[in-house]
Each structure stands twice: as C-alpha cells, then as structure tokens.
Design brief:
Low-confidence stretches: none
Strand order of the largest sheet: 32-33-35-34-36-37-38-39
Number of strands: 39
Radius of gyration: 25 Å
Strand content: 25-35%
CATH class of the largest domain: Alpha Beta
Structural class: alpha+beta
Length: about 675
C-alpha cells in the first residue's frame, strides 16, 4: 500500500461501525481464529472454561431487598441471562426456588434485539418498581421502568433511549436525572453535563434543571440516598477523574456545597460525613494524611466545625480499599501487602472502636459488606488464587458467622502454591508480586510464565481465584504471576500518584523489574515469558512491546490505549487526562509521545508475537487503538501480530459465556503456541 492508502485505512479504522473498517476487522478475525481457535488443545481449553462459567453450582450472588433476594444468572440454558428472585429463606438453602422476573433471551427474541442486562435500581421502600438498564454491548444503556409485581415493563413509564444517561429514584413519581441528549448536554468526555429533577408524565427534556457543569468537566451526576431516617439528595460534579465537588440538594432545589478538598471523596453513614483523602489535609494544628478515612457529624461540618474522628490511618503496608455499613457498624475493607482483610468498627462517644478484624492465611482475600440498613447482618466473601469464592453471613449483634455458599473447585489445588516476592525497580522501590506455581517447580529458567499487570487509576490487583486457568495454564506446566506495580492502589494514593502523567515510566520500570526478577530466580527466561494486560494495562503491554521487546516471548494486549496523542479525541478518552496528560498542552504532549506505542513502533525492530483484542461496541476505549496499531505494524512488515475484535463486546467481556470461553481459550492457545515454539 502507498502511504496515502495506509493513512486512508488508519482513518477508516477510527470509526467503530465504518463498513470498510468492519470488513478489515472481519478478515483479521478470520486470520486469527484460523490460527488460534482450532485444534484439540483449543477445544479442550474452551470446554474447561465454559464448564466453569456455566456450572449450575456456582454461587448465585444476590442483592437483598427486604424479604427478597434478586440474582442475575447466565448458563447454557440462558445465554444472555435471567433476572430472578427468591425468598431469603429459600436463598439460604442449597437449592433455592427461583422465580424468573425478566428473561433477557426472551426479550431479545420478542423485540428482535441484542440486549445485555446491565443492572437494576429498585424503588425503596416497597421495591415494587425498578429501573432496568439494558445495553447493546457498551456502557451506554436504555433505561426502562419495570413493574416488579406483574413482571412487565410499564407502558408510558419512565424511559430513556440508549445513552450514557443515569437516573436515580427519589420517589415513585420522581427521578434525579443526568441526561445524555447529545450535543451540549454532554461534556468533552462524553458524559452528562447537567442534573435534573424529572417528574412522571413529563419529557426528560422538560425536566427541571438542578445544576449545569462545564463542558470541560468529566461528568455530572445526581442520586438519592434512601437510608431510613437519613434520606438526602446529592449532586456531584466530576471536574476530572480525581477532582470534584458534592452538594446537598435541599428545599427548592437549593445546592449546599460539602466543602471537602476537591481531590477527596465523601460518603455518608447515617448522620456522619465520611471523607476519604488522596492528599494530606492540614486543618489547624493537625494534618490528616493521604489515604485516611475521617468521620464527622454532617450537620457540624456544614456549620464549620472540623473535629474529625480518624476511622483509618494508613501505614507503609496497609491501605483502605473501600467500606460498607450495617445499621450500626462500618466495615472497612483494607489491603495489607496487596491481600485484603476487614476491620469492623463502631463510632461511640466520639471515638472509633474496632470490634474485630478478620484476615485469612495463605494470601486469601476477605471482604465484607452490609446486607441491609435495618440490621447488623453482613456478608463476607473470601477467595484466593487457589481458593474458590466462599460466601458467609454474619451478624454483629450476636457475633455469629457461618458459611452460606461455596463456589465449586475448578482444579485440584493441592499440587500448587502461592508465594509473594519483591523486585527492586530502577529507583530502588520494592515491587511486590504474587507467583502461583507447582510446589515441585524446577528452577530451570524454562517454565512457561504469564505475567499480568495493570498499574493505573489506583486499581489494586489482589488475589482472585484462578478457576479454569488452573486447568488451562497451571496444570499444563505454566506459572502465573501478578505484579503490583505503581500506578495501582495497593499501597494507597502515593503508590498511584508515583506513576501519574510524566512519571508513567515508573510503572513500566516496575513491571520490567518483576520480569527480570523472574529470570534471575530461574523461574523462566525471556523466550518463555509472556505478559498480559487490558485497558490501561493494554497501554502497559504496548510499552513492553515497543521499549522492552527482548524481555518477552509473547504479549497479549487487551482493549488497550495505544495512541496517546489522539486518545482524548475518541469516546471517553478526555476523562483520563488527569491520569495521563493532555496532548493539547505542548509539555504534556512531549511526555505522552514517550509512552505512545502507536507512535513508537518501528519497522526496524524485531518484536515478540503480539495478540491485540478489542470490542466493536466498546464506547469507553475506542477499538481504533488496537485496530490502527495492528494495521500499522502489519504495514511495517511485522507478520506475527494478530487482532481479534469481538463484535458484540464492549469494554468488558463478551455478553455470553460461550463467547467468553472461546475468547479466553483463543488467548491461551496463542500463548501456548508462541511460548512452545521458542
């Protein structure tokens, strides 16, 4: 192809639904599936993955609404899934008696549609109605009002066409609405700019305006807190991914600012305001540290008092991952060296009292959340790389805790072990990583090893059950490694901020330090080492490709960001400027160019085999990133570069288990072929 023809192709690939682009994608998909989605090993792995996904003994994760428990379920009989319910008493048995509320497969058949279920918002307190969120693949949803008594959509009820609008019940006849009606109703990030009060029987375009943000903001949202006795309406303006403002909505839609730092987040527990800090906050003679969780009576705070109660203060090993609540207790989900544990606390007489701490051995995560606002019951979830999910219910009133449900095991874990190691990054920082491998692993430097990473947006990678990967990877002799690199949230805000913007290279250096440590410990060698990451982790893998091609034998780059000079122009890309930088600012464009794989890839370098994956329906990270990268590399003469684009998928996995199984097995087959050929 001539240079103008190549540029024409790259331009076409920017538009997800462009006919010429889809034709090109179809040919790429065929090439990839012909190589990696056929053969006995692929079929065996696909079967193992699908069996795990469709297993009818998997935990039916439920949401409690008074005496009812709702669950969304997918298996071989329900590819798109059913939303169902049962009584709490029945749910606690081994074989609950389920009542189908909404069958998505039947809905698609009736409407000739391609819907996926994206959740429901039930109307408090009687839960007789719901807002149902339906997606055709991406983040955008159609919102419909649903009658939970008659199990039908309500004719002439609340309805919004597929968009990035959001809505929250205030009462049966009123919603708080963030409206996506296109054009000037959206921010440059593609999210709603304004919040409204929408009354039944009126058009959403005629809803009463509550607040209008700036076009350059990330988003505006509004919601109703229905905690009994502490009901409140709130409006939030996200100025960017990490800075915002929250207002209480009172009286005649009067907004009263909750004046916490813009980079802090606020939550509520009864009459308490909870403030989570991401930077130090000096108040009078006290400086509250980044990562702390503070509490104060909301009314006192609004009157100007600042007598906070510290509920959590981080240390060098422990950080707050989130919190939940029961009627009288807060449940703090913490991470210590990237393994989760729970503190149960109560605020009494202006003091924090820790009732108990739950943590498990063998790098097993444990997290907790309240079951409802009217009792002190809670549910506890535990899992590790080798331990499947367990669901237990507890009651803080009588200090009971018992196992309710357990996921099935996908493989025999007895022959494997989990260890934690620390590598030294280029600047001397200790980088933790988990290794899952056979107990009898031979330190030969020749073990096929898969290294996974993310390193962004303060997201923590903690132990998770490997499930079918135990069959498709571990039992075939593979070693699985998770790197807890900077940019993530494993050690709190400072760990994240250390790799922001111009410091992004630290995440790459951390990842390569782990790779080098695996080689130095004779776990593997570069030819037998693969790396994988998705979304922001796809940017990580893209930079491994361009900057460290000799460290890896294969790479898997999923739903990635790769063109860092144009990312802000596509879909939700502008919302990540606070993480990466702004290409429109000359200084920031310079550092973005240094970690823009699309701009660094060269015809003169030998790269490891790389599989790029994306989704046509992804309305968050544009499929243009993966498409254009593959097109450019192939035009440069790199043959061992592959693309698979799932036409039904958005930013997450495909909508059906069978598609997910095929996709995951194809990736595993790619890895085994590439690492076995070395």
């Amino acid at each position: 192809m001539t240079q103008p023809e190549i540029q024409d192709l790259l331009n076409q690939l920017e538009t997800p639904e462009d006919a010429a682009a889809l034709s090109w994608v179809e040919k790429q998909n065929q090439r990839t599936t012909d190589r990696f989605a056929k053969g006995e090993r692929f079929q065996q792995m696909r079967g193992a993955i699908l069996q795990s996904l469709d297993d009818k003994t998997n935990i039916p994760w439920g949401s409690h609404y008074r005496e009812k428990v709702y669950n969304f379920w997918q298996d071989d009989e329900h590819p798109r899934g059913i939303w169902r319910r049962t009584s709490e008493a029945s749910y606690l048995t081994a074989t609950p008696e389920w009542e189908t509320v909404l069958d998505i497969d039947r809905l698609n058949e009736d409407e000739g549609a391609n819907w996926s279920y994206h959740g429901a918002d039930l109307l408090h307190p009687d839960y007789s109605r719901a807002l149902i969120f339906l997606s055709s693949g991406g983040d955008a949803c159609e919102i419909r009002e649903f009658d939970l008594v008659n199990k039908t959509f309500i004719r002439d009820g609340f309805f919004l066409p597929e968009s990035k609008s959001s809505a929250s019940w205030v009462d049966e006849n009123t919603l708080l609405l963030a409206l996506d009606a296109g054009d000037d109703t959206l921010t440059t990030s593609g999210y709603p700019r304004c919040a409204y009060r929408w009354v039944r029987g009126t058009s959403p375009q005629d809803a009463a305006l509550i607040y209008a943000g700036e076009a350059t903001d990330m988003a505006v949202s509004a919601w109703h807190d229905d905690t009994p006795g502490f009901e409140r309406d709130l409006v939030h303006r996200s100025k960017d991914f990490y800075r915002g403002q929250t207002w209480l909505l009172t009286g005649q839609d009067t907004l009263t600012l909750i004046a916490v730092p813009e980079d802090a987040s606020c939550g509520f527990f009864k009459d308490w305001l909870l403030v989570t800090l991401t930077s130090d906050w000096p108040i009078a003679e006290t400086t509250w540290p980044a990562g702390a969780l503070l509490a104060i009576d909301l009314a006192d705070f609004q009157r100007g008092e600042r007598n906070f109660i510290p509920l959590f203060t981080p240390n060098s090993r422990t950080t707050l991952q989130g919190y939940g609540s029961t009627r009288d207790y807060l449940l703090l989900n913490l991470s210590q060296d990237a393994v989760e544990k729970v503190d149960f606390i109560k605020i009494e007489n202006g003091q924090r009292h820790c009732v108990k701490t739950l943590e498990l051995p063998d790098f097993t995560n444990v997290s907790a959340g309240g079951i409802d606002d009217e009792s002190n019951r809670y549910r506890l979830v535990s899992h590790g790389f080798l331990q499947p999910n367990s669901l237990s219910y507890g009651d803080l009133d009588n200090d009971t805790l018992g196992l309710v449900k357990q996921d099935p095991t996908s493989f025999d874990a007895a022959e494997f072990s989990v260890t934690q190691h620390f590598a030294l990054s280029e600047d001397g920082t200790r980088i933790p990583y988990f290794q899952v491998s056979a107990k009898a692993l031979t330190l030969s430097g020749d073990n096929p090893t898969l290294l996974y990473g993310y390193g962004g947006f303060e997201v923590s990678l903690t132990p998770h059950y490997l499930g079918s990967k135990g069959v498709t990877w571990l039992q075939k002799g593979g070693v699985y490694v998770v790197a807890n690199i900077r940019g993530g949230g494993e050690y709190g805000p400072a760990w994240h901020q250390a790799a922001l913007k111009q410091h992004r290279h630290r995440a790459w250096e951390d990842f390569t330090a782990v790779a080098a440590d695996l080689v130095a410990r004779k776990i593997t060698s570069p030819a037998r080492l693969a790396a994988q990451g998705g979304s922001n982790g796809g940017l990580l893998i893209g930079n491994m490709l361009t900057d460290y091609p000799t460290l890896f034998g294969a790479l898997v780059c999923e739903v990635p960001l790769l063109d860092m000079l144009n990312y802000h122009n596509w879909l939700a890309g502008a919302s990540w400027i606070a993480e990466y930088g702004d290409p429109e600012v000359a200084e920031e464009r310079e550092w973005l160019l240094r970690y823009s794989p699309f701009d660094k890839v060269s015809a003169d370098v030998d790269y490891p085999p790389t599989l790029f994956t994306t989704g046509t329906q992804d309305d968050r990270v544009s499929p243009a990133h993966a498409r254009r990268m593959v097109a450019r590399m192939q035009q440069q003469g790199h043959d061992n570069v592959w693309l698979y684009e799932e036409t039904d998928a958005g930013h997450g996995s495909a909508p059906e288990n069978s598609q997910t199984a095929s996709h995951q097995a194809m990736i595993e087959e790619f890895l085994w072929q590439m690492l076995s050929e070395k």
